[in-house]
């Protein structure tokens, strides 16, 4: 059993006497604070923080980090405040402990509580990465001692570990920690599957022992002939990775176990490439299966050469070739040679990448609306696979597999993402929804005043892009809602012979207080979104201010087409300028414009509080979508003639589909973009004179 004395003895290998004394002091402080507390296993509670500190000591973390590990539950579980820890030790230790501590507030759900905790930890670790190291060590010891909890808690903690903590360890290149998280999590979450795969692996290893030994000997002999000194190791496949490949790639157990994996560790980068040539001479390489992560490291700092060979009897052999230093980084990642000063320019690649990732998390946190949205975005950002693309100046950016030019734009800078309007991939214009591939050069075209399109959310991959788009759309909608709300309220007050400026400030404060608001802008935004009725607010504001003579008459609100997200056009009837229209006030969405004759408005006409009088503004500068059904005779090339005629009428075809009714007649459905009813009438007039067209109908509900 680990004791403070044996622990202190281990620390002598890399810490000074004074630092060890500080660690001892922290142990006795924590022991006194946790006096009388016990773990579920029945052991004294102090055994847990001591074990967490021991995990960090194996990584050679500094004495402040070890002190924080010993004290990490003191604020949360014993009621000792942060300032006491700061007085007893120092401010840096107190900040570390506070960063790891969970929030004490009440939440609506466990999911929200966990998300809040993770969000707070992210803010703390952005300042000092040791917060994350303590948290990972804390979770690792909890996973090792999971057996004392009931099965439901075991599954919940295991799922959270597999979904969040294992990917974070992977993102920081801490391969050993990730593997242990995955193995322990898999065993707790799926005990039966774990035991079955474990038995199958034991059997398979026994059957293939001789074959592995033959491959190992042949590789060693070939390297010796080429005068290359190297360590050759057979790589074991872990249970969770086998299960994950079986599930995600839909492969059988036999297919996965038929791949033989080896690692070759050498002294220099130059030797790595010599080894590659040597093994390619020994066995034939599989085309398209070579990856050079030395020249272009993974996002977590991982470096290695990967190649797949056709071995004896045609069985595939996977080879990883790396240096001793790369091996250390691959196993321990950021903990292999940790640094934590944010302004330290001497940091190695893995640490710079870790800091860049945490900086990205901070940006996502600032853009996210709430903690649940934040953690959802972080999860999407923990993909293990990356694509590597270039800016026109040759700078490399790592993105998640499946990323688009929009993801790339936000990776470069949030402002570039927000004002993106088009892109070039390898100097050719391409859709913004294109899936990027490694090696491509991406150029983003921006325009001042441009805004993100809500449709982007349906195809972006990275958490930073998703958070940036949502944040921008919220701000855009807020501004547009305030502008529309002001127009609606001014229009209603005008009917009462007054205006917003003429309202008594005291009266305005009373109305704001009634609705739990502080500022006029909040009220205007609520009106614009349809959450407050302009007529009701106006009536409250004019009480005891002015009295209108006779019935209140509202002038129709002019629709200008520039209102943005808060004024939308109904898809059921597709109104265009010139159509008689009516507005439906939809809570949270603003105003939805329908045609006056739309069937969907029939029930709402008797609800004046949900409808409003609107009209088209005389200057509409945008195009509107309209659907036509054209019935015609079978004539060769008729669809091309239709499209050409529409183009000549200065309209655009958004969509076209054709359906045969019988041997002689067909129906063509067209979705066009037109300016107004006059423009549409001109298009229809031109279509009618085409030979073979028998009937044209504008489609509406």
Automatic annotation (TrEMBL):
One GO cellular component term: plasma membrane
TGS domain mapped to chain residues: 385-446
Segment forming the signal sequence: none
Underlying gene: spoT
Domain ACT as annotated: residue spans: 627-701
Sequence ranges assigned to domain HD in this UniProt record: 45-143
Functional pathway: Purine metabolism; ppGpp biosynthesis; ppGpp from GDP: step 1/1
One annotated GO molecular function: GTP diphosphokinase activity
Annotated family: Belongs to the relA/spoT family.
Top-tier EC class: hydrolase
PANTHER family linked to this entry: BIFUNCTIONAL (P)PPGPP SYNTHASE_HYDROLASE SPOT, GUANOSINE-3',5'-BIS DIPHOSPHATE 3'-PYROPHOSPHOHYDROLASE
Descriptive protein name: guanosine-3',5'-bis(diphosphate) 3'-diphosphatase
GO terms classed as biological process: guanosine tetraphosphate metabolic process; nucleobase-containing small molecule interconversion; response to starvation
Listed EC numbers: 3.1.7.2
InterPro entries in alphabetical order: ACT_dom, Beta-grasp_dom_sf, HD/PDEase_dom, HD_domain, NT_sf, RelA/Spo_fam, RelA/SpoT_AH_RIS, RelA_SpoT
Catalysed transformations (reactions): guanosine 3',5'-bis(diphosphate) + H2O = GDP + diphosphate + H(+)
Pfam families reported for this sequence: ACT_4, HD_4, RelA_AH_RIS, RelA_SpoT, TGS
Keyword terms of this UniProt record: Hydrolase
SMART domains, per the entry: HDc, RelA_SpoT
Gene3D superfamilies per record: 3.10.20.30, 3.30.70.260, Beta Polymerase, domain 2, Hypothetical protein af1432
Organism of provenance: SAR86 cluster bacterium
